[in-house]
């Protein structure tokens, strides 16, 4: 894996973790993003965002 690929992957992961950034990309309110994040946590029965991201990575959802 090249250094560029690693940097691009890390940048992508960082942006996925930054829910405010997702709101800007999708042109929606941070509040809307927070509501969707809470809904995903509730439906997946996970406790926090870190667990949600880990689950998503393990199941190749990201």
Query: What order do the SSEs take from the amino end to the carboxyl end, as H and E?
Result: HHHH
Mean pLDDT across the residues is: 79
Overall SS class: mainly alpha
Number of helices: 4
Number of domains: 1
How big a fraction of the residues is strand? under 5%
Shape label: flat
pLDDT < 50 stretches: none
Termini, distance in Å? 19 Å
Q: Can you walk me through this structure?
A:
The chain has 62 residues and is mainly alpha-helical. The protein has one domain (3-58). 77% of the residues lie in helices and 0% in strands. It is built from four helices and no strands. The chain has helices spanning 3-17, 19-26, 30-44, 49-58. Helix 2 (19-26) packs across helix 3 (30-44). The chain is flat and about 35 Å long. The model has no long low-confidence stretch (mean pLDDT 79).
Descriptive labels:
mainly alpha, 62 residues, 4 helices
Reconstruct the topology from this structure.
Layout: H1 3-17, H2 19-26, H3 30-44, H4 49-58
GO molecular function: DNA binding
Protein name: HTH luxR-type domain-containing protein
Domain HTH luxR-type: 22-54
Summarize the structure.
By secondary structure, the chain is mainly alpha-helical. The protein has helices at 3-17, 19-26, 30-44, 49-58.
